[in-house]
Each structure stands twice: as C-alpha cells, then as structure tokens.
Q: What sequence folds into this?
C-alpha cells in the first residue's frame, strides 16, 4: 500500500509542475481571446467560470498516510489493531489525494479566467510532446448538460483508444457542480511510465443531492499492483464518498486489493468502510469490513457486520487451526473490534468509545453503507 500513496504523491507533484507551464501558455492565449471579446458593459467578462473548490477536506484523524509503525507495546504474537485500522486511513488518504490533484488543476487553470471557448496547442516542457487544449460550452456528459468542458490531450495520441486524453473537466457554476477525469500518463509520458493505465475521476457538487452542503465521489482505477510477496495489500481500485455537513464529514466506500490474503487460501478482498469525523475536534469513528472482491452484497449487515474485520480474521484462524482456544484468538486479534476510534494522532481505541465526544458521529456512521464489492473490483473510468 506504500506504493499506492507514493504513486499518488508523485503524480500530484508532477501534475503541479506541469500545470505551471500550461498556465503560462493559457495566460497568453487568454489575453488575446479576452481582448477580442472585451465588453466594458459586462463586469463579469473577466471572471473565471471555474469553481473555486472541487473537493471535500477530510479530517486527518481518518485520512493519513500509513508509516508502517504500529503499536509498540503489544506482544509480537498479536495483530495490532492500530495497524489494521491505519490501513483504512491510508486508503481514505489516497482517495483524498486524488481529489487534491483535481483541486490543484482547477486552482491553477482558474487563474487565467476561463469564460469562453478556446482551442490551442502547446509543447509540454515535461515530456516534450505536443498537447492540445480545448474548452467548449454547453457540453453533455453522463446524462447532463454542462456549461463548460475543458479537455487536454496528447496530440500525437488522439487516434488512440483513449483519445490521448489527459484531463477532462465538466462543470456548472450555479450551483457549483462538476466532474473531473484524469489520466496522468497522457500529460507526461516520461514521469508516468510506471502507471500508464491509472485513471482518476472526481464528482463534486454543492447542489445538495445527498443532503450534504457539499460532497465528492472519488474513483480510482488501474493502479499498478506491487509484487504480492512484497506487498499483498496494494490497491487497484477505489470508490469513496465524502460529504460535509457543518462540522461533520461522513466517508464511506471500498478499495479493492486483488492479492490480499490472510490465513487460508482465499485471495482478493475489498476494504469496505463507513466513517464519520469532526473537523474542529479532529476525531473520527469507523467500521471496517473485509468482504471478498467478488461479493455481490449490498447491505450494511453483510458488508460490515458479517464480514467485519474481526469476523473474517477469526473465522479464517479457526478454519486453519480448528483446535485453537478462544482465549488465544482473542489475544491474537488484539484491538480488532468494531468500531475503531481516532484522534489527530490516528487510532486510539477499538470496540469501546474513549468518551462522549464520539457519541454523535458514532451514531452517524451507523447510517452509512459501503458499495457493492464486485462493482468496485470491476470499476472502470472513461473519458467522453
């Protein structure tokens, strides 16, 4: 899983570097185009039509990279629960970082005021290849009409199956709503050779469709898998919802790990999760399930209770070692009870709440349900 978070961080850095160059090209184009269309009676002519926000910030209590350092004061013959729960924080973090990449793209491009259609070609200062940028108005995608659509392609690859597309953003301004799709390989062939098929999609809205002030749904597909002998838990796909209401953010979803295995021969599991957290206090509570990647279950009971982290692990232990004592299993599966509780330092307790400050989010998470595992396992992302 460390490869997952490192890949995302590297993509984020390279995307920012590439966008500075794109920005310079676009500023020059914008000056020419806007000067031709300038209307002194229209005060909004120079105002960017891009949304200023395109993500939901998730408290670090439940979204932080895994360092590989677990509980230090437990016996070596236990599975420290903080390690297992911190894996969840890593997967949420990877999803949030993908949304952060989109946010950076929109922030940089918004500087030069997109408020009209444009079409231009530039040479990337990263891979030295021609890139083609097009902005059109009144586009349709995913069953909806959008005020604007921005697309950047690798010019020499426009005849390829993916159209050579590197970025495609659709958005409306009132209320703010949009879809952003990325394929980093087509923006910089040199830096992204290691993950040529990786794609990301972020759906963002402030229209209140799910009862939140704003929400995002993050999709990740085709991440490269690590050698299972080195890291059997590397992630291939993810689908994650995050919704903000006041001081609270709810997060639920699944990540798929095709090579994951525990004690018996079963291979391929989803990390299914439902969590709720508070911004100001930076605390959170989460449930984790480990359904098989091929599971077609859609109900919360199956995903998070029947296939709870503790149930899956204990069932496999009894299958492999049928005569083992209950006391030994309980000791071995230290701190794996549900739910897990978190503060700004990460995992703090399992099964029993550390205090009343968790009561309301503990109740909220009971109303959240992850996605059907097999749909996340088979997740694909496509450009228009």
A:
């Amino acid at each position: 899983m460390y490869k997952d978070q490192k890949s995302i961080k590297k993509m984020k850095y390279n995307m920012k570097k590439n966008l500075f160059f794109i920005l310079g090209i676009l500023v020059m184009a914008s000056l020419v185009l806007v000067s031709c269309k300038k209307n002194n009676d229209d005060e909004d002519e120079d105002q960017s039509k891009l949304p200023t926000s395109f993500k939901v910030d998730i408290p670090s209590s439940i979204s932080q990279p895994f360092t590989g350092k677990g509980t230090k004061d437990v016996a070596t013959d236990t599975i420290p629960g903080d390690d297992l729960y911190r894996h969840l924080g890593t997967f949420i973090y990877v999803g949030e970082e993908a949304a952060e990449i989109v946010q950076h793209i929109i922030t940089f491009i918004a500087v030069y005021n997109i408020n009209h259609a444009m079409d231009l070609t530039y040479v990337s200062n990263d891979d030295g290849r021609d890139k083609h940028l097009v902005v059109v108005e009144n586009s349709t995608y995913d069953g909806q009409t959008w005020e604007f659509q921005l697309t950047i392609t690798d010019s020499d690859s426009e005849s390829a199956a993916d159209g050579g597309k590197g970025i495609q953003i659709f958005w409306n301004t009132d209320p703010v709503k949009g879809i952003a799709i990325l394929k980093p390989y087509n923006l910089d062939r040199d830096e992204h050779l290691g993950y040529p098929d990786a794609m990301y999609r972020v759906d963002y809205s402030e229209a209140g469709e799910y009862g939140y002030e704003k929400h995002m749904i993050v999709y990740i597909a085709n991440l490269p898998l690590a050698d299972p002998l080195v890291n059997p838990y590397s992630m291939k796909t993810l689908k994650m919802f995050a919704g903000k209401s006041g001081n609270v953010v709810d997060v639920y979803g699944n990540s798929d790990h095709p090579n994951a295995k525990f004690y018996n021969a079963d291979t391929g599991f989803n990390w299914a999760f439902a969590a709720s957290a508070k911004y100001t206090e930076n605390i959170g509570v989460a449930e984790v399930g480990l359904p098989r990647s091929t599971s077609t279950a859609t109900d919360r009971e199956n995903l998070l209770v029947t296939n709870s982290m503790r149930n899956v692990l204990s069932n496999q232990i009894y299958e492999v070692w049928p005569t083992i004592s209950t006391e030994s299993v309980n000791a071995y599966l230290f701190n794996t009870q549900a739910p897990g509780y978190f503060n700004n330092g990460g995992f703090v307790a399992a099964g029993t709440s550390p205090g009343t400050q968790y009561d309301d989010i503990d109740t909220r998470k009971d109303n959240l349900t992850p996605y059907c595992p097999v749909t996340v396992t088979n997740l694909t992302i496509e450009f228009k």
User: Anything to note?
Assistant: Residues 2-37 form the longest helix (36 residues). The CA atoms of residues 297 and 372 lie 6 Å apart. The helical segments are 2-37, 81-110, 300-306, 309-320, 326-332, 359-365, 373-377.
